[in-house]
Structure formats: structure tokens, C-alpha cells
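Here is a typical protein record:
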Amino acid sequence: MLVPVLVGPTGVGKTALATAIAGRLPVEIVSADSRQVYRGLEIGTAAPTPAERAAAPYHGLGVVDPAERYSAGRFARDAAAWIAGIVARGRTPLVVGGTGFYARALFDGLCEEPDLDAERRARLGVWLRARPAERADRWARRLDRGFRGGGRQRAQRVIEVALLAGRSLSDLQTSRPAPPSGVRPWYVVLTRDRAALHDRIARRTHAMLAAGWIDECRRALAAGVAPTAPGLSAVGYREIVAHLEGRLAADALEAAIAQATRQYAKRQETWFRHQLSGPVLRLDAGETVDALAAVVVSGYRAAAGA
């Protein structure tokens, strides 16, 4: 089955477009966002609002607690089951998100990663989390020529495999098996002029902080979530944790989050330019949402032979 997959950098407008598509096509949405899987972190992950969720059923939101690691392999298994259920209900699965590795895991399959010594991995993880994310990214690139970014957790996994298994993760992935899902992707990559995207990121950062992002992070910490937990390792949460711990001044917080978000968006754009396999439709998000939705639905129906 051909499945529409809407991807693009953070802040580009994927959720708004998915909502408009839901008005034209009987879809259920599968979230491919490695941050929106965490419960209780709706503000900082820009999770769909109640109104947006009312437009179509969502799968993959609030799946695990912030202290739990949610892997791409687990997403692929969960998403395959969600998609099978959606198809059985006579509806169209629409995969939406900015985590490219999730899409790769679902549609291209994953290699069988080696078992790593738990104690050594735990010690390495503690050591790595105490270092800046940029340094982990540099080490990952040196240890694995195939590493193309993807955030702190992805860089940590690349380093773990390289140091503890003695072989790069990208080498292991060259022999990955066929995906079990039996679906084929039809990609829609949403893009936006760099200056316009940066402006949207700045305005969204301000709005999220005004909506109570700091308190949301404070509640997670008060509930016992560790500052280094997977759910709090995302862009923005790291900076808020640093602020709450006295390492980042209040008047510098918003700018620091916006800058980190811009850097993350740039890495996503690079990934989506080079890593997608299958048909790809690239659209300028500067157009109206209704016009974009019409193009997507028409293109998908033609590609699927509907």
C-alpha cells in the first residue's frame, strides 16, 4: 500500500497541513515525532491541539513516560500495527513528523543492532550526557562516516555502537532486512524560506514559553523525571533545565531555545534532502494551507491510482 508521509523541519507547518488534508481525505494520522511520544510534554513538543486532534484520529502521541527510551525500532513496530488497523477501518494512514529516522525505520527496515554490555553502556551514557550535544555530534561523525545527525540520542547510540561493538552503526545498517510493514512511502517534504522559517521559530518559541513551557518542565522534574531523561533531552527542554538549575539566565533563555531550534531545523532539512528513498513531492510552505492540501491530496490519489 502507498502511504502518504508528510515531513519537514520543526516549525514549518506540518500539523496545520495535516489538519487541512484531513478535511479532504478520510485519514488517521500516525505521528512520526520522537518528542511527541512523551506524556505530559505537550507544550514543548508542539503537540497537536485538541482542535487539531478533533480533525482526525491520532496515533503515537503520549505513548511513554519522559523517563523511558522510545526507539526507532519500537516506533516501526507500533506504527506498522497502527497502519494495519487504519487500513482495516477503510481509512488512509497519514504519517506526519520531523523525525526522519522513524520514517526510515518504518519503510526501509532496521538492522539487528548488537547487544551491548549494559554496565559499560550506562557508564558511557552518563559521561556523554554530561557533555554538550554539539560535542557528541562531532564524535559521532568521527566514529561513523555515515552519521548525518539526528540529535543527542541518535549521536549517543552511534557512539555506543562504535565504541562498545567495534563497528559503525551505518555499516551494520547496510545489511538491514526488508521492513515488515509491507507499505511504501509517498513523501511530501514541506519546505520554507530560511528567513521565514527562522521568524516562525522565534514566534513559536515565544508563544510556547508564554503558554507555560517552563512550568511544564518544572512539573516533570518535580514528578521525579531526571534532568537527563530522554524526554527532557529535546531542544528547548535542555535549555529550560539549564535555566532551572541556574546555568542559563532568564533573559537569555528564549534566544538560546530559538537558536538551538534553528540549528535542529537545519539538520532536519539536510536529512530530508539526502536520506529519503521513494517518490518525493517538495512543497513551499509559504503557499496557503488549503492550496497545499489540494496539491497533496490530488498528487497522492494520482500516485496511488485512486
Remarks:
- The beta strands are 2-7, 27-31, 58-59, 92-97, 184-191, 280-284.
- The chain has a mean pLDDT of 91.
- Residues 118-173 form one domain.
- The longest strand covers residues 184-191.
